[in-house]
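Async update (no meeting this week)

Hi team, since we skipped the sync, here's where things stand on the single-chain job. The sequence we agreed to prioritize is pasted below, unchanged from the tracker. I ran it this morning and attached the output directly underneath so nobody has to dig for it. Comments welcome in thread, and please keep replies under the output.
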Amino acid sequence: SGKTPLYIAAGGSFTAIVDMIIKTARLEYL
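Output:
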């Protein structure tokens, strides 16, 4: 259970990065 917080933090970071990429892609396509 010690690795769970780290996994959640990594997942949140990944989600934030993907969200940023999606927003950037939208700006480029528009």
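Quick observations from my side:
The chain has one helix and no strands.
The mean pLDDT is 82.
Reply here if anything looks off.
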